[in-house]
Description:
heterodimer; A: 792 residues; alpha+beta; seven-stranded mixed β-sheet; 30 strands; B: 262 residues; five-stranded antiparallel β-sheet; 31% helix
Amino acid sequence: xxxxxxxxxxxxxxxxxRREDIRFLTGTGNYTDDINVNGQxxxxxxxxxxxHGRITSLDTxxxxxxxxxxxxxxxxxxxxxxxLPCGWQVTDRxxxxxxxPAHPVLAQGKVRHVGDPIAAVVAESAELARxxxxxxxxxxxxxxxxxxxxxxxxxxxxxxxxxxTSNLCYDxxxxxxxxxxxxxxxxxxxxxxxxxxxxxxxxxNPMEPRVAVGDFNRATxxxxxxxxxxxxxxxxxxxxxxxxxxxxxxxxxxxPDVGGGFGSKIFHYAEEAFCTFAAKALNRAVxxxxxxxxxxxxxxxxxxxxxxIELALDADNNFTAxxxxxxxxxxxxxxxxxxxxxxxxxxxxxxxxxKTPLIYVNVKAVFTNTVPVDAYRGAGRPEATFQLERxxxxxxxxxxxxxxxxxxxxxxxxxxxxxxxxxxxDTGDYVATMDKLEEIADVAGFAARRAESExxxxxxxxxxxxxxxxxxxxxxxxxxxxxxxAGLYESATVRVNATGGIVVMTGSHSHGQGHExxxxxxxxxxxxxxxxMVEIEHGDTNNAPMGMGTYGSRSLAVGGSAMVRATEKIIxxxxxxxxxxxxxxxxxxxxxxxxFSVAGTDKSVAWGDVTLAAYVPxxxxxEEIEPGLEETAFYDPANFTYPAGAYACEVEVDPDTGKVTIxxxxxxxxxGNVVNPMIVDxxxxxxxxxGIGQALLEGCVYDExxxxxxASFMDYAMPRADDVPxxxxxxxxxxxCTHNPLGVKGCxxxxxxxxxxAVVNAVVDALRSAGKNVTHIDMPLTPxxxxxxxxx
Amino acid sequence: MYEFEFARPETVADALQxxxxxxxxxxxxxxxxxxxxxxxxxxxxxxxSLGGIAEIKGVCQTxxxxxxxxxxxxxxxxxxxxxxxxxxxxxxxxxxxxxxRNRGTIGGSLANNDPAACYPAAALASGATIVTxxxxxxxxxxxxxxxxxxxxxxxxxxxxxxxVPEAANYQKFLQPASRFAMVGVFVAKFADGVRVAVxxxxxxxxxxxxxxxxxxxxxxxxxxxxxxxVAEDGMIGDIHGTKAYRAHLVGVMTKRAVTAAG
Lengths: 792, 262
């Protein structure tokens, strides 16, 4: 356990136990599927079972006549209504905006992936709706599917969208002006290492599948959507303004307890729009609960990049240039933030922790007949980290130098550091995190452990890598320039009650992160009152001010900062009230341990005295300030935050079967200041589990016809408890963020970003120890793939 | 799932009568059938649960030294009660997870004959006898390919009788997602020879590796099968492993089972 745990009993830095876990673990959470509106009906979606085809006939009359059916909807019901919008517009290397196809709520004429919704049956029960869906008469003229990205870009390839010029969404170059200089650096290089790799397609699979309940109040004309979302305000804006034409004051979106998101619950989905639309059309609440099978073919997938990366080094092994070419799968439609993931969340991170002076990133985003791909824990940054840290490891092998030493030699050591890919790292200490890693991973003891493994017939490997991520997303003016169609500030309202208790309404959203515990720690620290006097509310657009939600490790860095700003306003006002009560000057009032005192005197009033005075203003400076104690702040960060770290993985490989077991895993992270070290440990553990899942187990596979082969947990391997080791996790290296008031950087995605290359590096190291000339294995490193690689 | 009637008879006779109805379907522990129903891939009119029939539950030894297991006995009860046949008890204790083991039954597993199930390997390698309400079927005659057995419509497995070998072991290599056997090998050494049964690997379901049996009958050691291999042709090839990989694993798992059997 890291040293900082137990350092404090409450406030910032304390390992306060997660208060929300009591309800989660005792079955008293309130998830969307727990919400049942009086008189609600149920929808079942008829989904395409082919990857690509033209709907030639769709007859719903028999289904509509089935018992309990209220109405059957098809694409025709949504003609003239907006499609699902894309929230980010990328401009390509020639200055043209990306190709942006329509994304209908229900298929209009064509189906474009297995799972594409065609019709929706609303009935008195979910079973009746499903029964009726089977009575829909549907004929599809099947078209050839495009699944492979490079094939999709060939002349004459079938087009996913007939009205686009090709299957290319965009061809992005970054930084385009550097392209020639990078090419020259490669020509002058003493050594070039090249690696081609795949970043495997993943399915997020949060424990709670998606659910939507649409409701309509005929008396007020107000629509309500209860949904499994990471960002209810974003859904309200996208769905209200772009799909259904409902103004915000007539639309409430509630995301209550949410059982994990990992990015897949950021996006606005067709089912949400459908339930809201149908509730109004039928004047009945309409509920949809995804089955796990539906989740596999309707939740946005993650990753799915095919990349060639080249690293140029000089004669002294200094990195001189980096060049990448990536094909990024968009799937059949553009999901909400899909275009940003392989570009601004990926290209800007290609410098990694290294002072490579010249970088050129090319990304071709491609439409295929597959489920849309969008952000998944890390979103772009894992793809950047994986290729960079794999090619560095390969270079070290080729040059026969120590992979750790090669990294250290090329570390950025002076901050702030402006990378050649448009971002500026404010703080960091990559030498310190690597030192810490070598200590906690006991790198020095590896040789002895390898010898022990070899005695029992196993190959042992050590893989090390670094990572950097851009978190705390993000400055609105910057992302606006980069194509975001939204601001990325965050909001908080701090409401102090008369007797001193506090409710914070945050625009960020907790779906496992522990905000209800960690946010009160910050306020407890600022005011000096117990943490349990503070409650956090989130997820209801009728309560919280307009916020942008939780993703990109932004909640504390951006949402927490908004809360700090609002609390500062509260404290300023409370000091004025306290000054009045004690007949002192405002400037002389000090707040400590929940007590206001006059500097240099023994006069004081308690927090509760001041809050009561605010609401019972009998003795109150009404001519100067208003009664009440409630403040709102909106915080827009000046920069991204840049968490960074170094990870080490030790594996054993069974040479007979190719099976990899992870024996040790160490993570040394720099998250800046840490509010709750136990929650941070948990976030890292979870991220490592997902990263190890990607590296060893998870692979979403389509066949050439576009059928999803890994369509259930029978074939899609999620990591289980016994797939992961006990972790050595440390976050004592702390270089605080310089531009947010808490000095925090974010920790939610680090584990998933930093761990896949460590695992693959370790397996390659293990195989090489047995004399196998293996330079790379594509993820997931299943036993079959590792064994095949060993056969040469 | 679609609607169906539900019957829970308490005797084999009543169960047979219920199964005589058109499109009636026997339900053991439901570990395959219930998910199948939920996917709407089966549409029985009546589901006849065998879970209430006491006479087909339990583990005992017969007078001639065999281990007799009632067809309705759960994997957990076999794991706990088959101490006379430790390799079989160990196999039962490694099927699925505790929830599966507390519901799933040996009769259900053998009747379904999933090509990746564990029990078929034990029954075939042991030369077990599958006892039904109507007859006794030798394991060698019982397994007839993937999801196919000698059972007639409406026939119920009441008991499985296992000869207890001198030494035996089951080695399972897990398919990473389902954790069914990607390759499972059961080796059983009897006084008159060795039997080796392989599950998970073949497109034809469980099979005996007779070449290995001959070699091991002559020399019961892992070295005896060095150089032997099953043909790739006919092996299962899928996203988890190629035909060649499964063929290779058959050899590895067989060696490990022999070594572990001692």
